[in-house]
Fold each of these.
Amino acid sequence: MMGKHVVPADDNIREHIRVILERQFDESIGDFISTRNSLSVELSPRTGRLKYVFVDGNRILTLRASDGWFTITTMFAKLVNEGLGAFFNKVVIESGIDLKGSLLAPGVVDCDTNIRPGDEVVLVDEEGKLVGVGRAKMSCDAMKTSLKGEAVRVRETV
């Protein structure tokens, strides 16, 4: 739901979003999102800084004040997958796992090798279907080899 300080993204805001996404993920994602016609943002009423990013009225990104990176939503993952033909920072999980709060390492089937702790990740089942998004708590290597421990803190499920 869009708040009362939502405004269409101007060129400066689009560039700001593009640069963050390019550094956080890659150039193709930054370009793909920043050029969307229906891109709008919510600014903090107190500071005037960017808080949320919307496409077609749906929130897809939240800017974390703590580190300046975006947290992603399942809507963002779907949009990027449909537009670019692939998921990014993908963690493949065993089919049938009920995602509530944490994905434990034994539930990880495979993952993109570039994933590091703290990265935003997309969770897909063994058939390649989006099941959720979250934040990696360990590297891909650790996810695949650990017998215990939290691999991903799940933020949102489909």
Amino acid sequence: MFDSIGWGEIVVLALAALFIFGPERLPSLAKDAATGLKKVREAITGVRGQLHDTLGDDFDHLRDVDLRQYHPKTFIRQQLLADDDDTPVRRGSATGSTGVAASASAGRVRPSEMTRSRDSATPPPFDADAT
């Protein structure tokens, strides 16, 4: 959460707190902040224990779930950059030269085959799912 805060920023914040609250009140405020932080940690630990007791051992596998993998950027990156073992499905016009069909079934289409000439009377391939 605070990965970008360095020692310089911490010193500036400490000096600002010293000037704002004064040297008399600063130790008591630090003590109160530490006590509040301990109470928050105990409350979180208690809630975690209650949740574990309530859910039981059936949901132990949920502890190992990494929620960061469901972040939209991570999900899209995995989907776009993942190596697929399946051969890609080529959609479009089924009428074409046999070289294109053979190359498509092998999972490769050469650029020269993709730019093949077609009859001007034939409409271009149309994919209803893409529109």
Amino acid sequence: MEVTLRDLLAEIRNLSFLFYGYTVIWIIILGYAFTLSRREQNLRREVEELKKEVNSKQ
């Protein structure tokens, strides 16, 4: 079995597409996790403000 330069370059190109695909997927996952953490922080802050408001009215 003879491996030609063209075959080798095609394999390298395929691996680069795989690398870029995984990179994009990880960026999307990390962005989503960041967005969720920001929303959680905002919700926690809002709950604390509501608790203070309820306690001040009592």
